[in-house]
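Field log, afternoon session.

UNIT: design team B
ACTIVITY: writing a sequence onto a fixed backbone
BACKBONE:
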């Protein structure tokens, strides 16, 4: 279930790049989603999940504005939907 960062980003960029942060947040979202399927009344975990989703969304918005090609590549590799644009 863990996401292999070497498939997505280079060795130099693994530490704190936007791409690696999005990958780690996606992994945490998947883990919390599985947890909430078992424990549907765990409201504090649900609140934490919403917080992580908002953080990932803001990083994805930042990535679309600064490096759209990298954004396209990342969402295709992670299996995410495109952001809604107004």
């Amino acid at each position: 279930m863990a996401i292999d960062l070497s498939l997505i980003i280079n060795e130099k960029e693994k530490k704190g790049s936007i791409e690696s942060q999005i990958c780690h947040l996606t992994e945490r979202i998947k883990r919390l989603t599985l947890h909430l399927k078992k424990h549907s009344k765990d409201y504090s975990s649900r609140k934490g999940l919403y917080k992580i989703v908002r953080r990932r969304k803001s990083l994805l918005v930042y990535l679309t504005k600064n490096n759209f090609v990298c954004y396209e590549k990342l969402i295709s590799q992670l299996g995410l939907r495109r952001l809604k644009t107004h």
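LOG NOTE: The CA atoms of residues 21 and 55 lie 10 Å apart.
NEXT ACTIVITY: expression trials, pending approval
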